[in-house]
Amino acid sequence: MTALDAIKNRTSYRGKYENISVPRSDLTKIMEAGLSAPSGCNKQTTSLIVVDDAELLARLREVISPQVAETAPAIICVLTRKIIAYRDKCFNVQDYSAAIQNMLLAAVELGYQSCWYEGHVTDSDAIGRKMANILNVPEDYELVCFLPIGIASQSIKHADKKPFSERAWFNGFWRV
Prior knowledge:
With 176 residues, this protein is α+β, with helices and mostly antiparallel strands. The protein has seven helices and three strands. The model has no long low-confidence stretch (mean pLDDT 93).
């Protein structure tokens, strides 16, 4: 599969997963793809934790509300730290976003599905902090997202995208 194939085949999969473990070698490849993403001023504000232990997954699922990804055999928790990079600016959101996209593409290339769950953990109910506490994450890190990783057991549906001509132009903005 080429990078362009992975980009076109990636979708947000919210279905059930097969009860098949994801080899740690594949999880490592996915995490390495994430950590290879660009980082503002190379501050490398993104860190990752893979959870593939059934008991620990169960503990995490107890605090995730509403319930999602309850059958995924592994999840990758995305952590960030706010580190000033340039002119009092912090690029941690861009850093972890690039890392997440790389991981989603790597997962598809390896035959897995996933979904970027951020709203579930960053809302005012502090689910991200509850998850972080279960994983012994220090207070100066924020758990901002998790990605379930596994083999889809349901059909994969791709969202309809607007036509290229409605969203992209050459040499200026041109309303259709």
